[in-house]
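User: Predict the structure for this protein chain, please.
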Amino acid sequence: MRVLHLVSEKTWRGGEQQVAYLIEELRQEGVESFVACRKGSAFHTYCQQQQLPHTALPFANEFDVVTALRVKAYSSQHRIELLHVHSGHAHAISVLSHVLGNKLPIILSRRVDFPVKRNLLSRLKYNYGGVKRVVCVSDKIKEVVSESLRHPELCVTVYSGVDLSRFANSSKTGRLYREFNLSPTAPLIGNISAIAPHKDYYTFVDTAELVLRQHPDAMFFIIGDGPLRQDIEAYVQQKNLQRYIIFTGFRKDIPQLMPELDVMLVTSETEGLGTTILDAFACQVPVVATKAGGIPEIVRDTETGLLAPIKSPAILAEKVHQVLMDSATRNKVIQGASTLLQEFSKRNTALRTLAVYKEVLQKV
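Assistant: Here is the predicted structure, written as structure tokens:
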């Protein structure tokens, strides 16, 4: 089987990591993966480093005929059997390529839980006949997307997976305490994600302010970078919390940093699934999170973590306090999370995706 993955994003976030995992695992199953990526992007660099067969294209906009024609040519040259597209931009290009004669079946991955836009282009590309499956990373996304499809049966859920071996040797070493010269008894609470609007770091800061009333020695970490960093830094200064909230920027040493946290605090307003939560599970870090998107499908309240409504800093703060003070609750959710995690390996994700490929190709 020969599959062309369309990866149009400039940066490397959770979605790009999922594509990398998928390609890696599909190789073990004998699937040949090819990539059409944005020239100069993080995934372009990844393809070069991993020596993956790829073509680097402009992906200038959703009407980029040049990119669509080059996808068609590359597909023909390498005898591609189906296209797997991994973002909205790539989705549009795949449809345009199909219209221009690249009649391969299209598999679309959907990783965000907000509704499909109501404009004509979005409606057309989601209901385009060449799209044979919409692979959703959570049941919540499947529910949301299905509402916009004439054929909702095309939606299937395939949960994102994580590399369980990535955290096999992870342990608490005091790394963050030493790096930032912190008291060794300070509770460490953090999130590891892009500082983007849907992550709602304003609620993270508001929650930190309330937690500090009960735990004045607590320290909070925002690990990552993103378009709202300056805004969130300004909000922290406005609340005079800069002494307690540390921005680390983008880090590559997540397997070493994650185990340092006493609580993973996720305050997202929308979330497809939340694979960073699975990383926390792997490091036996208890999770307090909002009921956003697909999060409740992995954070099951009082079983694998603690949940609160979105934009509810008071409830989130109380949940954080509970995890810090109640060892029975803490141990219970850590154990439950460790058990659940086994279902979310990157291998399982790849095998379920491969089953979708085979089903589609059998009907072509």
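The chain has 14 helices and 13 strands.
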